[in-house]
Design goal:
This protein has 95 residues and is mostly helical. It has helices at residues 15-18, 33-45, 47-64, 67-83, and strands at 8-9, 26-27.
Length: 95
């Protein structure tokens, strides 16, 4: 995605958190070689669709995978946890 290439993948592991079918890439069922081949052919036959996927994926990567933006989000989560008092209990964890 950062290389501005279209992505065809299977929805296993963390892939569905990054690839949204039809928006940032194309997904096919795990083990479904025919569907994967179909997605690859679709991109080859529909350059405009491929360009839309590449554009959306690039936008996603710029916002989601930016190290500074990621650091800000992590700090926000930790800040909320601290303000809520160690997991919302109001107590520090015991030994």
């Amino acid at each position: 995605m950062t290389l501005k290439r279209p992505v065809c993948a299977t929805p296993v592991g963390g892939i569905p958190e990054i690839i949204e079918h039809g928006r940032t890439g194309l997904l096919s069922g795990a083990g479904d070689a025919a569907a994967l081949a179909g997605n690859i052919l679709r991109l080859a036959e529909e350059p405009a669709a491929m360009e839309r996927l590449v554009l959306e994926a690039s936008r996603f990567v710029a916002g989601y995978c930016d190290p500074e933006a990621h650091t800000r989000k992590v700090l926000e989560v930790f800040g909320r946890a601290v303000r809520q008092g160690w997991g919302g209990t109001g107590r520090r964890p015991g030994p």
